[in-house]
């Protein structure tokens, strides 16, 4: 029930299909409580966290709705989100955003509309298997609060997000064609927001009409690597985004007001399939997991994240504590060296890029800026192959959204959900006409 699944289900429900929507996590109200408790030092729930639960990973983000895709469905998504409670400003802003506070209400309202139209939403229910007969999906194997059961189906839209690693393995085992996909890893870089405002706005910084400044930076290194910022969160915070025990993952989040003390973004280095090592399409998953576990150990094994000041990072020395920038990550950080939890080519690329990026945005390499690691979930490490009608080689299976490798953010994922739902409707209509 991320943006791809929500908009696929809404499209099907409005077409009279009465879809069954399966979400392994909890409804957003309970999920929000679990995440807040974890950030305060409470228990980690592998089924209810920043990655899993109603609304998907985007629920705990800045809620950016701008996208590089050109598709008429983009306007439809914005209008639906506004009707579901998103601010009217998303209909006219060049860089619309919702903020995690509005996202929580919006996804709840979308869910209620799906149910009102006849949809069946099943929370805390996992897709654990697919029955395939004559090359087509015949049933979905589900495990919910009342145990395991088989649900006969003719179509499954697989909108699982980029972190459903067990589902990737299950789908691959069922015979779906999959391939390795490039992605990127790195750390969150955190500055004081007033410093970013001054760098971007100059003397006008602080004017109430301007709001919190953002940025988007990239540099291409001589060795062919790219280093870039991603998912910049003005006035936001760095958040704990793990989905597996024993692995630390960071992400960024902002409220709609973007009025926090710090700004943060991911500082990422591209990772190619040949970097993964291993064999098979799931090698990228294991590559991510390796560095998440290293970060867990470097953080002390208690869900703190490893952190290092930029000045120390550039001098190749561990950090002992903060300077003028106080890290926002909760449950807290452990100061040290990011070399303990990132590949050498990633830290080398970041060190080479930081001074170059500082030339583009004065103060970006501020010695007191904080690097918090590791960010490994910027995009899916796999692609579940599909054809022109959005179906896998297993007929009736529709890989969809960011997790399947066909989107990169809230807007493009929602659009892909609509596209896949339209493909399901077209296929069922064509079968009924035969």
Short précis:
The protein is globular.
Structure overview:
With 434 residues, the protein is an alpha+beta fold. It folds into 2 domains: 3-179 and 382-432, FAD/NAD(P)-binding domain (3-Layer(bba) Sandwich), CATH 3.50.50; 182-375, no CATH class. Helix content is 31%, strand content 22%. It has 11 helices and 18 strands. The chain has a 7-stranded mixed beta sheet. Strands 3-4-5 form a 3-stranded antiparallel beta sheet. It has a two-stranded parallel ribbon with strand order 1-2. A hairpin with a 2-residue loop joins strand 3 (126-133) and strand 4 (136-144). Helix 1 (3-14) packs parallel to helix 11 (410-432) and helix 3 (73-83) crosses helix 11 (410-432). The longest helix is centred in the last third of the chain and has 23 residues, at 410-432. The two termini are 33 Å apart. The relative contact order is 0.18. The mean pLDDT is 96.
Blueprint of the fold:
Blueprint: H1 3-14, E1 20-22, H2 28-39, H3 73-83, H4 99-116, E2 120-122, E3 126-133, E4 136-144, E5 147-152, E6 156-158, H5 165-173, E7 178-180, E8 183-192, H6 193-201, E9 218-220, E10 226-233, E11 237-240, E12 250-253, E13 262-271, H7 273-276, H8 283-298, E14 305-309, H9 310-314, E15 333-335, H10 344-360, E16 370-375, E17 382-384, E18 397-399, H11 410-432
Parallel strand pairs: 1-2, 6-18, 14-15
Antiparallel strand pairs: 3-4, 4-5, 7-17, 8-13, 8-16, 9-10, 10-13, 11-12, 14-16
């Amino acid at each position: 029930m991320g943006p791809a699944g929500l908009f696929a289900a809404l499209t099907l429900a409005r077409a009279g299909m009465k879809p069954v929507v399966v979400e392994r996590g909890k409804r957003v109200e309970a999920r929000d409580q679990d995440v807040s408790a974890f950030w305060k030092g409470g228990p980690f729930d592998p089924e209810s966290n920043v990655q899993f639960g109603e609304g998907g990973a985007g629920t705990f983000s800045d809620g950016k709705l701008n996208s590089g895709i050109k598709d008429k469905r983009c306007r439809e998504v914005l209008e639906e989100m506004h009707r579901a409670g998103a601010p009217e400003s998303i209909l006219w802003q060049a860089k619309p955003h919702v903020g995690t506070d509005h996202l929580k209400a919006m996804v709840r309202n979308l869910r209620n509309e799906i149910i009102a139209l006849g949809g069946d939403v099943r929370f805390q229910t996992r897709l654990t298997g697919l029955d395939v007969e004559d090359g087509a999906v015949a049933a979905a194997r589900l495990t919910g609060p009342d145990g395991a059961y088989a649900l006969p189906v003719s179509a499954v839209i697989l909108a699982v997000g980029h972190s459903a690693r067990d589902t990737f393995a299950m789908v691959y085992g069922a015979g779906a064609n999959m391939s390795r996909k490039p992605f990127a890893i790195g750390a969150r870089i955190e500055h004081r927001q007033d410093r970013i405002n001054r760098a971007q706005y100059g003397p006008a910084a602080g004017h109430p009409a301007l709001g919190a400044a953002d940025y988007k930076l990239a540099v291409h290194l001589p060795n062919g690597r790219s280093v870039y910022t991603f998912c910049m969160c003005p006035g936001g915070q760095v958040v704990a985004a793990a989905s597996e025990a024993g692995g630390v993952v960071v992400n960024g989040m902002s409220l709609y007001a973007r009025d926090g003390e710090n700004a943060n973004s991911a500082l990422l280095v591209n990772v190619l399939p040949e970097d993964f090592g291993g064999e098979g399409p799931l090698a990228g998953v294991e590559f991510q997991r390796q560095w998440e576990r290293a970060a867990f150990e470097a953080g002390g094994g208690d869900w703190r994240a490893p952190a290092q000041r930029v000045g120390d990072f550039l001098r190749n020395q561990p950090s002992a504590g903060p300077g003028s920038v106080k890290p926002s990550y909760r449950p807290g950080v452990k100061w040290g060296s990011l070399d303990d939890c990132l590949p050498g080519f990633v830290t080398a690329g970041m060190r080479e890029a930081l001074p170059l990026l500082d030339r583009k945005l004065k103060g970006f390499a501020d010695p007191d800026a904080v690097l918090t690691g590791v960010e490994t979930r910027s995009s899916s490490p796999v692609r579940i192959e599909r054809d022109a009608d959005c179906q896998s080689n297993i007929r009736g299976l529709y890989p969809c959204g960011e997790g399947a490798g066909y989107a990169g953010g809230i807007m493009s994922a929602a659009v892909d959900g609509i596209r896949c739902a339209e493909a399901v409707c077209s296929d069922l209509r064509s079968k009924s006409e035969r």
